[in-house]
Task: inverse folding
């Protein structure tokens, strides 16, 4: 099997800056695809990057300046698409790397978009609701000249949600002097959001797991599942799998976790975590740490929290048959190789969590046509897109002898390269 960047050079080290890491992945994939040097060079540089200062009048009367970014990796295939992250660790390099990953993700599912990403370096948990609204509106004023429904369409990401999108689309529409609902996705349904967007990432992940299980002959009835993260993606994945009769035996979040060998009552866990704000201390099981979760004897492990959770330090402990990357970048390149060598099927993030951007695309179409779809229609179309993407990645995995992660890169990048080669 062809190995990827982690075994080629020291640059693929787990401590690598995310921008360096994604450049490594792109350069390796481009070589596999035989892409001309000039095109590779183009792909290693985002087309546009903007850094802005956002003044916010704080509740205590002081003025604070926050730094925000928007990176647009490619604007060749259509408008750029990607979320906005509010987090203390946001840096320009992280935003650039995430924009590049979005290009690949949109390529894997065949959306007519390039990749983009935005972020503000801040700790949203330390901000009041009013301060958060001022920051969100200020961010839009800063990036207004470079976004829009035909240019770049932001969406929620870590610590931004439908309410933040509502403030942002309202600010955008005020500046534009007309309602422009298609300028943002992930909005509340009442404000032009799509039915099914909330659970779309988890539903897409479940479709990918079901398709993969069929291919490797894993019977899902009664199969066991462990999930890290019980936010939007993790909790919806847990609920959907529980409703399909799988046994979710372990769930953790940032505070701790819960284990029950006979299966956790996910409905009760949802109620509990809504009230208490964590899954830790749930009475329907024993306590579980994050490191114990990764080593659980289960069929399917779903990292659905943050990046860099499965590394070369703990990859050998993983005993699942399938690792479904619902989070972005939860497995390092080196850890991916260890899992693959152990015979574990790793379903890569740019395929597994692409349901979110796919339904964001549906939302944008609905806003632009004014024709709104039923939840059933959204689900049917999502199933078609995810199944088609899975099959394309799986075919490359088999034909080229590369693991699923590299196969997904080859499919995603291949689409962009095809477009650039025609220019
Ligand atoms: P969220 O903020 O709703 O939930 C995150 C969950 O992870 C929480 O339960 C939190 O407690 C947990 N967590 C955070 N840090 C942790 C740690 N150190 N250890 C264990 N648990 C930890 O976020 P989300 O929207 O569910 O996103 C989860 C992941 O999925 C992120 O990587 C995100 O980029 C990715 N993703 C989300 C979407 C989407 O539509 N929401 C789409 C694509 C990818």
Result:
């Amino acid at each position: 099997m062809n190995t990827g960047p982690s075994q080629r050079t020291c640059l693929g080290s787990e401590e690598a800056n995310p921008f360096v890491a994604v450049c490594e992945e792109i350069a390796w994939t481009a070589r596999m695809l035989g892409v001309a040097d000039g095109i590779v060079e183009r792909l290693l540089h985002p087309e546009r990057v903007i850094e802005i200062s956002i003044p916010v009048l704080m509740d205590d009367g002081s003025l604070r300046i926050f730094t925000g970014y928007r990176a647009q990796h490619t604007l060749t295939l259509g408008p750029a698409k990607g979320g906005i992250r509010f987090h203390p660790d946001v840096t320009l390099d992280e935003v650039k790397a995430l924009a590049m990953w979005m290009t690949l993700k949109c390529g894997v599912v065949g959306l007519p978009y390039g990749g983009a990403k935005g972020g503000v370096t801040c700790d949203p948990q330390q901000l009041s609701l009013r301060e958060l609204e001022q920051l969100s509106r200020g961010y839009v004023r800063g990036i207004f000249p470079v976004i829009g429904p035909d240019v770049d369409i932001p969406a929620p990401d870590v610590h931004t949600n439908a309410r933040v999108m509502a403030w942002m689309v309202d600010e955008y529409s005020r500046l534009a002097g007309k309602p422009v609902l298609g300028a943002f996705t992930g909005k509340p349904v009442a404000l032009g959001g799509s039915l099914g967007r909330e659970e779309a990432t988890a539903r897409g992940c479940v479709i990918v797991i079901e398709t993969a299980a069929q291919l490797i002959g894993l019977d899902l009835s009664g199969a066991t599942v462990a999930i890290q993260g019980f936010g939007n993606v993790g909790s919806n994945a847990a609920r959907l799998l529980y409703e399909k009769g799988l046994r979710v035996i372990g769930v953790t979040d940032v505070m701790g976790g819960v284990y029950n060998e006979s299966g956790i009552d996910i409905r009760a866990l949802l109620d509990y975590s809504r009230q208490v704000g964590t899954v830790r201390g749930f009475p329907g099981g024993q306590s579980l740490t994050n490191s114990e979760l990764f080593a659980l004897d289960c069929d399917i492990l779903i990292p659905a929290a943050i990046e860099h959770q499965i590394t070369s330090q703990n990859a050998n402990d993983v005993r699942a048959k399938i690792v479904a990357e619902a989070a972005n970048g939860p497995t390092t390149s080196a850890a991916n190789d260890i899992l693959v060598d152990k015979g574990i099927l790793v379903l890569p993030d740019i395929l597994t969590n692409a349901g979110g951007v796919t339904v964001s695309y549906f939302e944008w179409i609905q806003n632009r046509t004014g024709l709104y779809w039923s939840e059933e229609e959204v689900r049917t179309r999502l199933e078609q897109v995810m199944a088609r993407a899975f099959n394309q990645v799986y075919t490359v995995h088999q034909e080229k002898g590369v693991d699923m992660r590299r196969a997904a890169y080859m499919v995603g990048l291949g689409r962009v390269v095809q477009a650039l080669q025609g220019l």
